[in-house]
């Protein structure tokens, strides 16, 4: 009888743990692209990108005539990051609490509630994440879209 009770409790804990872990993920589909560029797109297929100059910016690019708004928010820049010469991450830099608010409201409207830890707020999928940060001291922030899946030949077709 004790073994049966122990197994029942163990099974209940396993079910609750897996349900809690699943609740961490956003239930709607993640974005398949950023401004028309699919995750996994080869670098050579995006002719208007220029490399970011300076140490620490390897495989980081920008567009010379990038639109400097994101919804109603004004932004400073957009960086495109590549791994194995394929697009896997985009970073959006911005200034000011008002722009932080506008970005967060847009993201909440698109993906629903996320999770916050300190100055970071985000949404997670099994192979994708969106993270919004803000630094009160510097009055600057960043928004990152990161594809964390495979970057093989077919990833740009089915992210």
Please write out the topology.
Blueprint (H helix, E strand, L loop, with lengths): L1 H22 L9 E2 L2 E2 L10 E3 L8 E4 L5 E2 L2 E2 L2 E7 L2 E10 L1 H15 L3 E3 L2 E6 L2 E8 L4 E8 L12
Description:
The protein is α+β, with helices and mostly antiparallel strands and 159 residues long. It has an eight-stranded antiparallel sheet, with helices on one face. It is built from two helices and twelve strands; from the N terminus they run H-E-E-E-E-E-E-E-E-H-E-E-E-E.
Number of helical segments with 4 or more residues: 2
Largest sheet: 8 strands, antiparallel
**Distance N to C terminus:** 49 Å
Overall, the morphology is: globular
Unreliable sequence segments: 6-22, 154-159
Could you tell me the strand content as a percent range? 35-45%
The chain-level mean pLDDT equals 85
Helix content: 10-25%
Give me the side-by-side strand order of the main sheet. Answer: 3-4-7-8-12-11-10-9
Number of strands: 12
Instruction: Decide which structural class fits the backbone.
Output: alpha+beta
Write down the secondary-structure element order: HEEEEEEEEHEEEE
Q: What's the Cα radius of gyration?
A: 19 Å
């Amino acid at each position: 009888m004790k073994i049966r009770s122990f197994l029942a409790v163990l099974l209940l804990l396993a079910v609750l743990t897996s349900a809690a872990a699943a609740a961490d993920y956003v239930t709607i589909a993640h974005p398949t692209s950023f401004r028309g560029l699919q995750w996994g797109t080869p670098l050579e297929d995006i002719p208007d990108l220029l490399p970011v100059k300076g140490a620490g910016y390897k495989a980081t690019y920008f567009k010379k005539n990038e639109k400097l708004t994101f919804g109603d928010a004004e932004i400073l820049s957009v960086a495109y990051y590549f791994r194995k010469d394929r697009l896997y991450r985009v970073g959006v830099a911005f200034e000011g609490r008002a722009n932080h608010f506008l970005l967060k409201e847009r993201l909440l409207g698109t993906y629903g509630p996320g999770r916050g830890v300190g100055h970071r707020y985000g949404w997670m999928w099994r192979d994708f994440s969106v993270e919004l940060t803000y630094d009160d001291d510097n009055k600057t922030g960043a928004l990152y879209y990161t594809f964390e899946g495979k970057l093989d030949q077919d990833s740009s077709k089915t992210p």
